[in-house]
Amino acid sequence: MNALEPTCGRGDGGFALVVLLGIIGVASMTIVLAVQSFVPPFAGRTNTANSRLATVQSAALVGYQRNGAFPATLNALATAGGLEQQGWWRIDPYGDGQDLDYALVAGGARARSRGLDRLLGTGDDVTFQFASESPLRDRQRARLRLLRAMLLRSAYRFDVSMSALDQTAMRSAMATTARVQRQWLTATAAERTALTTQWNAGVATIAGLRAAYTLPSLPAALTGAGGLMEQLGTLDSRAVDGAGAALRVDAVLGMAAVGADGAGATDDDM
After folding, report:
1. Position 264 pLDDT exceeds 70
2. What CA–CA distance (Å, rounded) separates 38 from 187?
3. Domain at 123, CATH number
4. Is the pTM of this model over 0.70?
5. How far apart are CA 7 and CA 70, in angstroms?
6. What are the residues facing 22 on neighbouring strands?
7. Do 191 and 119 share a structural domain?
8. pLDDT per position as a tens digit, 113-156
9. Boundary of a domain, candidates 131, 148, 180
10. Domain end residue (candidates: 79, 111, 131)
């Protein structure tokens, strides 16, 4: 062998392999860290999806309470719920910048995130479905209080001198007006025309029977000395509906809730 010829031993080859593997390892770790910086872990994405879907649900229920129907689109939902039109709340964390899926469905509304496979309508979708029953349940509790006041202890309580036929007519008329108030909020324009006819007939029957039997007038106030709550033998603190909002005296039905708009004599009163 020529003394000047370079040599390459096995030890040098092994060292080169170790260096190469080290470089590959560092590069791989750099790629992993870079990807993780842009792609949140699965659990974090799911939590984000749940949070944003809960925001959509809350805004949809606000829209329902104010307008009697769920908003039809995310833009309408933003307006109803006081959200920023193009805010973070509507972006699907699994959607590569796309909006959450939102749609009206039978009995309510639905919002969905695409889930890990980034496809809608598959088994890993994160779905919130919310029915109109929830906000109406609070209102129903207010109506039950109203019915109890009307039928048992209010100024319309049945005098012993009232004939059985007129007692039945009074009960029917009050039940009709209460039902009309219950149905009005979610009724269509055509349905409201029919409900108005029923309301007028019920009110006329009640007024006629009040005059015929000289039933006492309702007090001007719901609470306080001489107020309706005192006449009912209950506490002023109970003059609230199922959502905790104050009731008001109603000239026809005894008491009513002012509805989600916070103002009386509007079409969402109860």
Report:
1. no
2. 48
3. 3.30.700.10
4. no
5. 82
6. none
7. no
8. 999 899 999 988 999 887 765 555 555 566 556 656 555 445 45
9. 131
10. 131
